[in-house]
Design brief:
CATH class of the largest domain: Alpha Beta
Structural class: alpha+beta
Number of domains: 4
CATH architecture of the largest domain: 3-Layer(aba) Sandwich
Number of helices: 28
Strand order of the largest sheet: 2-1-3-15-16
Radius of gyration: 37 Å
Largest sheet: 5 strands, mixed
CATH topology of the largest domain: Beta-lactamase
Number of strands: 20
Shape: elongated
Distance between the termini: 148 Å
Length: about 775
């Protein structure tokens, strides 16, 4: 039979294929291909199921559905001012959450373009990306990662911090099985996340849980740390920089490796250009790629920003509060709303630091002229062994003694070994070589200050400045410190006089009384050292001029025990010694309690304990506790108003110690105040009152032995009062501060009889003649 060549070729080809199918190896290949397909089709889902249930504990635990639906995050707790400004955070890892609405569109789009441009199309696992990544691994070529954004979120939330991925026999197979199982877990969790959250929620959770560098976790803190702004304000190039850091935060750290970070940023911008998002031409790309990083880098810590001392004091309170309620302050994401007003806090800090810088200059110069150190003993002589005694309280001395023993020469050698260090100065930090003695002597020469301002009606603390610089001086001089009050204690003596029926017009002679004390007789002197001028004056005038002799006479009439009881009712909680010299403020008190006690006068006799927290919310905005001010009646409103009148005397009486307040503060405004200076020239005070704000200021050395160059130099009128007046001027200038000028509120029971001190009868009379209550045991 004849056949054509083409027909013959076709037949041979069919015969050849048929013979190959008969070969055993070909049939086996077909067989195992189907087996492999079956294993993948059935075995992979089964394997993933076994992983999800952690069969026999082989694969390590998996979060249950409730954990996935409500993922926990290690969140910092935030301190917020009354006017909505963030004062700082308490954290182990500095992290704070944002909502999707708080993310700039540029940030979201750059993230998706760079990390997962099919994000809105997949359900947690991107098969195309996985295939591309697998092909790259097999061919040893870089094809990009296969993880979706959702898988990366799963890793952030659940698998990154797992301590044990495999148990039992599988653990002996090495790291590769562990990595495979972890990746499989990410698939499972990613799919679950996609089922339970919207795409927007997943993007937000991812950015909230991502770890960056420089102690910043999550996009909010990272944005604030690197650019000084929130994530809602990030532009295209800033977003590209932060997104570029995600692939390797340490390698692309813009602070340590700016060139790498810049290159990575531009690589991300190139992807943005490829996807034609906002960058549509090569010229636009070249222009934006040429821009610098534009960092405004600032690591957030407790030594920077507003209210640094306040943050530390409140932090100690919050630790105790949270411990009692089984809450972790550092990772629970609390929002603590304080009473502090950021504007008033700023004005208080500015007023204090500006004045203290100038005061320190004069302090240093005067002691240099005397060729003396500022520490004196009780007799006013140079305390020559001061540093040698104080050195034993330093942590360095204690550490050396623990290491070498108290008698070892090594201790003294190391204490005198100079080392490079940064030190505080009023012109900025400077580098120097100091040993421990040098450092101790240097810092002991600095004057310190404490200041607090409070709303007298609500008890809300509006400003709190605990010192001159929290980084170098940690001790808080508002609440932690207690010092002699000097003449600022006198209003409690006169307050009891008003309560006992004395009139502000009651007259006494400026003569030092003879007061019996154990073993001798005490003649209290005036500030100038004299025993009085003999002049007759009203007690309002005497308090305005801070005449010691007349205050001492009132103490004799009233009795120190009764003065102590009256001061306690006003709000003084510190132990007060019921001795005659108490009238001159020899007992120790804090700025915190003095402000609270003076506020009792302004608040109609109602004592309101100073408060600094209004409410605490959990991370979801639920109120854990709303704080209600603690109040009690301390005085009747008639006595309280009389004391306002007495304190106004310091401004209104001729020669009053508050008369030097700026004229701007007195116009259309009722204001009162009291200065205080201790006899040993260690402490200067000023207490100022208005209808809406009570402010206390203390100035002095960190120790009583540190003295002002003279009593005149250390007067509260010069050391503390200027801080108060500058602060109040700034507050009144700010029309949005909410603090206005005005009159003190009148008593609910009607105006008391204050007397016309120019009339003879009013000057000599008291409303109800009290008994003489003086006694001393």
């Amino acid at each position: 039979m004849n056949t054509s060549p083409s027909t013959t070729g076709t037949t041979k080809s069919k015969i050849s294929r048929a013979l190959k199918l008969e070969k055993p190896w070909f049939r086996l290949a077909i067989k195992y291909t189907w087996i492999l397909f079956g294993v993948i089709l059935v075995g992979l889902p089964l394997y993933l199921f076994l992983v999800s249930i952690n069969l026999f504990g082989l694969f390590g635990g998996m979060p249950d559905i409730r954990e996935i639906e409500n993922p926990k995050n290690d969140l910092s707790s935030e301190l917020i001012s009354a006017d909505g400004v963030s004062l700082g955070r308490y954290f182990r890892y500095n992290r704070s959450q944002v909502t999707y609405e708080e993310l700039s569109p540029d940030l979201v789009n750059v993230l998706l373009i760079s990390e997962d441009h099919r994000f809105r199309d997949h359900s947690g696992v991107d098969v195309k990306s996985m295939a591309r990544a697998l092909f790259g691994a097999l061919t040893f070529t870089s094809q990009g990662g296969g993880s979706t954004l959702t898988q990366q979120l799963a890793k952030n939330l659940f698998t990154r911090n797992a301590t044990k991925t495999l148990d039992g026999h599988l653990a002996r197979l090495g790291d590769l099985p562990a990595r495979i199982v972890q990746k499989n877990k990410e698939w499972i969790i990613a799919v679950t996340l996609e089922r339970n959250f919207t795409k927007e929620e997943i993007i937000t959770m991812y950015l909230n849980t991502t770890e960056f560098v420089n102690n910043s976790y999550g996009i909010k803190v990272t944005s604030e740390t690197h650019f000084g702004k929130g994530p809602d304000s990030l532009n295209l190039q800033e977003s590209a920089l932060l997104v570029g850091m995600l692939q390797n935060p340490s390698r692309y750290n813009p602070v340590r490796f700016p060139e790498r970070a810049l290159s990575k940023r531009n690589e991300v911008l190139a992807k943005v250009y490829q996807h034609k998002y906002k960058i549509t031409t090569r010229e636009q790309y070249d222009s934006i790629a040429a821009l610098p990083l534009g960092l405004e880098f600032r690591i957030q810590d407790q030594n920077e920003g507003l209210a640094t001392y306040f943050r530390t004091v409140v932090g100690n309170y919050l630790l105790a509060y949270c411990k009692a309620r089984n809450i972790d302050l550092y990772n629970s994401g609390l929002r603590i709303f304080t009473t502090i007003d950021s504007r008033l806090q700023k004005y208080a800090e500015e007023s204090l630091t500006t004045h203290m810088a100038g005061l320190q200059k004069g302090f240093t110069e005067q002691w240099k002229l005397r060729k003396m150190d500022p520490w004196l003993d009780e007799d006013g002589h140079q305390f020559k062994d001061f540093l040698n005694k104080r050195i034993k309280n330093t942590p360095q001395y204690k550490a050396y003694v623990e290491r070498f023993g108290a008698k070892s020469d090594s201790v003294n050698i190391l204490l005198k070994l100079k080392k490079p260090m940064k030190i505080f100065s009023w012109t900025g930090e400077r580098d120097t070589l100091f040993n421990v003695y040098d450092s101790l002597g240097y810092y002991k020469r600095f004057l310190q200050a404490g200041m607090m301002a409070m709303d007298p009606t609500t008890g809300a603390i509006k400003a709190w400045v605990g010192g001159i610089d929290h980084k170098y001086f940690k001790f808080d001089h508002v609440r932690q410190q207690k010092r002699q009050a000097g003449s600022t204690f006198k209003p409690f003596v006169y307050g009891l006089a008003m309560e006992s029926g004395y009139s502000p017009c009651y007259k006494l002679h400026d003569i030092s009384p003879a007061i019996p004390v154990p073993g001798t007789v005490w003649y209290p002197p005036n500030s100038d050292g004299s025993k009085g001028s003999g002049e007759e004056m009203t007690i309002r005038h005497a308090m305005a001029l801070s005449i010691n002799t007349i205050t001492a006479q009132m103490m004799m009439k009233l009795g120190p025990e009764n003065v102590v009881e009256f001061a306690n009712r006003c709000g003084i909680e510190s132990k007060l010694d019921a001795v005659p010299s108490l009238c001159l403020g020899v007992s120790d008190v804090s700025v915190f309690e003095m402000v609270g006690a003076y506020s009792t006068f302004v608040n109609g006799g109602i004592y309101t304990r100073p408060t600094f927290i209004s409410r605490i919310e959990d991370k979801n905005g639920n109120v854990i506790e709303a704080f209600v001010p603690q109040t009690r009646e301390g005085l009747n409103d008639q006595t309280a108003y009389k004391m306002i009148h007495m304190l106004r005397g310091g401004v209104e009486e001729e020669g009053g110690t508050s008369g030097g307040l700026p004229r701007e503060l007195k116009i259309d405004n009722e204001i009162g105040g009291k200065t205080g200076t201790t006899n040993d020239a260690s402490d200067g005070w000023y207490m100022g009152i208005t209808h809406s704000l009570v402010t206390g200021v203390w100035v002095g050395g960190d120790e009583r032995a540190i003295r002002f160059p003279s009593w005149t130099f250390g007067q509260g009128i010069k050391t503390a009062r200027p801080i108060f007046s500058n602060f109040l001027l700034k507050v009144y200038e700010d029309k949005e501060s909410g603090i206005t000028k005005g009159r003190f509120p009148q008593p609910r029971s009607g105006l008391p009889f204050l007397g016309d001190c120019s009339r003879h009868n009013d000057a000599d009379s008291i409303e109800a003649v009290p008994q003489e209550r003086w006694k001393f045991n």
